[in-house]
Amino acid sequence: MLQVSTDGVVSMLTTLVDNWGSIHAGLYVSAHIPLYSDTLAVYQAMEATFPGYARQPLVNWLVPGPDAEGNAVTFADLLTWRQTAPAVVQDVYGVFMVSPAGDLLWAEVNPNGSTPMQFAGDTFSHFPQFALGASVFS
Predict the structure, then answer these.
(1) Which residues have C-beta within 8 Å of that of residue 1, sequence separation ≥ 6?
(2) pTM of the model
């Protein structure tokens, strides 16, 4: 059994952040709960298409630090998608992250439920964060 220290997970997350490259965030518009077995194809099939939508790069990750539970946590800049013209409503249910190699890294359900995107000027914002746990591995 392996116990990773708080300093260890902070160091591991720092290495990840320093070597991630250009991760991109996309939006999905189906009531899907992310699964361990999901692939990028799952999210591409339900990716947003409203006017003005495009995947956005995650930039300016903060230096990772420990949280109260001993996990390492980092945050990127706030992302905001803006609809540029009226269209059929698309409800944003969550966000997915894509690696520079085109692999699905993780996906998140919108904690506020679905957000409708229908009219010019509608927005959806997401504050990306990533945590690495200091729990026991076996």
Answers:
(1) 136, 137, 138
(2) 0.88
35-43 LR contacts (CB < 8 Å, sep 24+): 38/104, 38/107, 39/104, 40/96, 40/98, 40/102, 40/103, 40/104, 42/104, 43/96, 43/104, 43/107
Q: What is the pLDDT of residues 30-45, one digit of tens each?
A: 999 999 999 999 999 9
Q: For residues 3 and 79, what is the distance between their CA atoms, to the nearest angstrom?
A: 34
- Long-range own/partner contacts, residues 1-5 (CB < 8 A, 24 or more apart): 1/136, 1/137, 1/138, 2/136, 2/137, 2/138, 3/136, 3/137, 4/134, 4/135, 4/137, 5/134
> How confident is the model over 69-82, as pLDDT tens digits?
888 999 999 999 99
